[in-house]
TrEMBL record:
It is a multi-pass membrane protein. GO terms for cellular component: cell outer membrane. The keyword Transmembrane applies. Residues 1-28 form the signal peptide. It comes from the Bacteria. One of its GO terms (molecular function) is siderophore uptake transmembrane transporter activity. Belongs to the TonB-dependent receptor family. It comes from Litorilituus sediminis. The keyword Ion transport applies. InterPro entries: Beta-barrel_TonB_sf (IPR036942), Plug_dom (IPR012910), Plug_dom_sf (IPR037066), TonB-dep_rcpt-like (IPR039426). Keywords: Cell outer membrane, Ion transport, Iron, Iron transport, Membrane, Signal, Transmembrane, Transmembrane beta strand, Transport. Residues 60-158 form the TonB-dependent receptor plug domain. This is TonB-dependent receptor plug domain-containing protein. It is found in: Cell outer membrane.
Length: 367
């Protein structure tokens, strides 16, 4: 028996009905595939931490010099104190407060460069303003007409410290440091991300313990620091960020004396230091920061920021005039011991209602 296949075409009416029935199925399957391929991105509120996110100008159009030292560059430089990486930039020099506590001071183009924290001026007098390196995401160094972005706060430039924020993905890191003088330290950073798998609350905790040693045996500085920060997404248009930064410092700064003829007397042990232990410092610094953002419209946003800073510092310092003629006997013309205690409490509050309207052409993209 021979089998034959017969092919019979559809009538125009049957073809139309078949197309009508199969089209929705094909369209639904295509949509399903596209939905699965779409990458989902979760966005949280934006906070005013940067020097340049307050003005609608792209970085390449800024009329001043801007250097950004981010965490990647800090890792590459591998300084024991990461903030010292700023000294590798042109026209930036580091100074130090005499008791070795508080925020390190810098000079930009020959002028004192104020250090901002999250785009805000902080008190940094004798032990205050002690933003630990473990809290920092990046540094922004702005040189030139800084008043364009941050007001007349620095003639030569300003340095902004951008602190760490929590993000959605969980993560943890621990960093150990040491140097040739015997310094040792540990930095930690734990990002808990979303609490209870909800984007309502995000939490991150960072901190450090460091025991700094120097080329002089009797010098040293010990710091303990911790900073929890949380973001609360209270709704589609409202977000709140709160952080508590604490740092404790104990320091023994060096006190030396000048050598007028360029020679060090034989009875001075040069393996230790040129002088004697003449200072002892204990300081505590606490900074509480909050920021509330609410968007009334896409182009109308309210920002309210407040901070409370408290610093307690005790120090003693020995000074005097040395008699070089009597160095061999250990006599001095006179010595005086100075001691002081200062407590600083400062409160900062500011509010900003920003409206943006585009009357002609396209609006600039924010950095």
């Amino acid at each position: 028996m021979k089998l034959e296949k017969h092919s019979r075409g559809l009538t125009p009416l049957a073809a139309a009905i078949s197309l009508a029935l199969t089209a929705p199925l094909a369209f639904a399957e295509e949509n399903k595939t596209k939905d699965e391929d779409i990458e989902k991105i979760e966005v949280t509120g934006s906070f005013q931490q940067s020097l340049i996110n307050r003005i609608p100008v792209t970085p390449k159009e800024l009329p001043f010099t801007l250097d950004v030292v981010d965490s990647e560059l800090l890792e590459l430089r591998n300084f024991t104190r990461p903030i010292e990486a700023l000294t590798t930039l042109p026209n930036i020099a580091r100074t130090e407060d005499r008791n070795g506590t508080g925020t390190t001071s810098f000079i930009s183009r020959g002028f004192t460069a104020p250090i901002l924290v999250d785009n805000r001026i902080q008190n940094n007098f004798r032990g205050a303003g002690a933003r630990d390196d473990s809290f920092v995401e990046r540094y922004e160094i702005l040189k030139g007409p800084a008043s364009i972005a941050s007001g007349p706060v620095g003639a030569g430039g300003i340095i902004n410290t951008v602190t760490k924020n929590p993000y959605v993905e969980q993560g943890a890191s621990v960093k150990l440091r040491a140097d040739q003088f015997g310094s040792a330290g540990v930095d930690f950073d734990f990002n808990m991300g979303e609490i209870n798998n909800s984007d309502t609350v995000l939490l991150r905790v960072s901190g450090a313990y460091r025991d700094f040693k120097y080329d002089a045996d009797h010098q040293g500085r010990t710091t303990t620091a911790i900073r929890p920060v949380a973001i609360f997404n209270l709704g589609d248009s409202t977000s709140l960020k709160a952080s508590v930064a604490y740092r404790e410092t104990e320091s023994n700064p060096n006190g030396g004396f000048p050598v007028p003829n360029g020679e060090i007397p034989d009875n001075i042990d040069t393996d230790t230091f040129l002088g004697f232990v003449d200072g002892e410092v204990e300081s505590e610094d606490l900074l509480i920061n909050t920021e509330l953002n609410h968007e009334f419209l896409d182009n109308l946003k309210l920002t309210v920021r407040a901070s409370k800073q408290a610093t307690d510092m005790d120090y003693k310092h020995i000074g005097g005039v040395y008699s070089y003629d009597n160095l061999t006997t250990g006599d001095y013309t006179y010595l005086s011991e100075n001691a002081a205690q200062n407590e600083i409490n400062a409160t900062f509050v500011d509010a900003q209602l920003a409206y943006q309207a585009n009357f002609w052409g396209r609006s600039h993209q924010h950095y």
